[in-house]
Design brief:
2 domains, 1 helix
Length: 114
């Protein structure tokens, strides 16, 4: 009887170790996937000229402003600016800067002055 109880205990321990090993492997795979996702996300916010981080949420990644360049706030528009540089034009975009500022080039999603 003592031998049977000892055998059952060992079997339970073996099963528990197998379950823990499988759970650990699954968690490890999830950690690797999340790490790779984070690396891809961070790589999308960096370039060779400047390091931009997720702390730049205030900035519109598709914005452009002739006077200020590529890294501008969400509400920053050529039409509502109070500080326009000489030669400023309201028709500029990231794709057509019309000779505007290159400040912040590399920031954001779309074509930029690089």
């Amino acid at each position: 009887m003592a031998g049977t109880a000892k055998s059952d205990t060992i079997d339970n321990l073996v099963n528990s170790v197998a379950e823990l090993t499988a759970t650990n492997a699954k968690k490890n795979e999830q950690t690797i996937k999340l790490t790779e996702d984070l690396k891809r996300t961070l790589a999308g916010t960096k370039n060779s000229n400047t390091i931009e981080t997720v702390h730049d949420a205030w900035a519109n990644p598709n914005g452009y402003y002739w006077t200020c360049g590529y890294k501008v706030g969400w509400k920053h528009k050529s039409s509502n600016s109070r500080q326009q540089a000489e030669g400023h034009t309201c028709d500029t975009t990231r794709h057509n800067t019309m000779g505007g500022s290159k400040h912040g080039a590399g920031f954001g999603n779309a074509q930029n002055g690089n």
